[in-house]
Amino acid sequence: MTKHLTGIRKEWLAARLDLLKAEKELTRRSDELARRRQELPWVRIDKEYRFEADEGSASLADLFRGRSQLLVYHFMFGPDYKAGCPSCSAIADGFNGFAVHLANHDVMLSAVSRAPLAKLQAYKRRMGWTFPWASAFGGDFNRDFNVWFTEEQQREGGIEYNYQREPVFERRAGQEGGGGGAEDEFAASAGTDVATYTRERPGLSAFALEEGVVYHTYSAYSRGVDGLWGMYQWLDRAPKGRNEKGLWWRRHDEYNKG
What we know:
Layout: H1 9-38, E1 43-44, E2 50-53, E3 56-59, E4 69-74, H2 86-92, H3 95-104, E5 107-113, H4 117-127, E6 133-135, H5 141-144, H6 151-156, E7 160-161, E8 164-165, H7 182-189, H8 194-198, E9 203-210, E10 213-221, H9 230-235
Parallel strand pairs: 4-5, 5-6
Antiparallel strand pairs: 1-10, 2-3, 4-9, 7-8, 9-10
């Protein structure tokens, strides 16, 4: 017997119509937030960032690949990682399908990580991905956009992520939304320790290219990127929701390994 509330169709319909009002309000609110994102002031980028991409050495402007807009997913894959973050890998599984449609709307999608390009290319082959992925190895891009931090920052409480200062790093029992030991499992899955693993962070940054000048227009971190996870939109409509327990995301080539 289910422990969940049950009822007759008439009761369900009344509750569903009440929920529909809230859903429509959320949609209107979401549209308003999108408008406000687009109205943020653009910040000119004068610093010269260099990346290694499949085509060779590239500037930030080169990552646009002829489009006027660029969305960068800050993929957690540090130089010391042996494999990409499993959560980032889960969200990236959708990039191949999205990229072609975004390009048709004058938007280029690219992942950027600090690991050397050869590591990223090998991992792309393993995962069967084709979307652009550039290496920022040795540069300041990830530091400047607040998705990589030093041991000193971690040790002294100098990490400012998602627009707020974090306390001094301490080993934690798990991550928000996960079970005990989840953080250890995610780090082990990437082939590193928790401290090294958590110095890399996920995020999204948006850029515009106008008359040869690159502008930073928007960045989001932590749960600010939830809406980009295609699977979350499905799970939020499933009877038991996200049901995140333990190592709740794995790479797609690991699901049959137990």
